Amino acid sequence: MEKVSKIERLAPGLLSVDCVDFGEYYQGQLWSDSKARKTAKCIYSGRPIVPGDRIYRPVTNKSNRGTRMLASEVDKDYP
Fold it and tell me: Distance of CA 46 to CAs 10, 25, 60, 74, Å?
């Protein structure tokens, strides 16, 4: 299970995220906004993600590339 420890907004639609995924620590990983193409679970809030939702996703090919955060939840705390 992935856990987010820090979020910093770098620009509209671009975040720097620190998170842990099964013991692997990602520091300052870039995440960009996008639209969900399939169902998932938001690692930030635990809420379900459905196709068409605005999300943030890693801009990388690391092992956590399939993780997602609902933009509506993140944007409430990090406007």
Answer: 24, 20, 22, 12
